Amino acid sequence: MPEIETPRLRIRDAEAEDLPELLPVYLSNPDFVRVNEGSRGEAGYYNLEMFQRDWWINRMMPGGHVLGIYLKATGEAVGQANFLEENPEDGMPWLGLLM
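Request: output the structure for the sequence above.
Response:
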């Protein structure tokens, strides 16, 4: 997927080396994480290994992308999105997460 830029943001496919910086963005919404994640009998438990697994699964899906959203001025990670170019159920693009 091509990189997208706005006056303040740069949005691009996240690579494996980006995940440690993107994980705190994901964890910054504890209510969302508590409802959507959990392991070891603990609601909301989510770590880098789990994030890496989810990143790989998303990339294996045809047209699947995990996008990192970064401040242009500093390169700081400030958001992420999961995007499918074509949802197999309806053939339409699908934004699965925007955080």
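The two ends are 19 Å apart (CA to CA).
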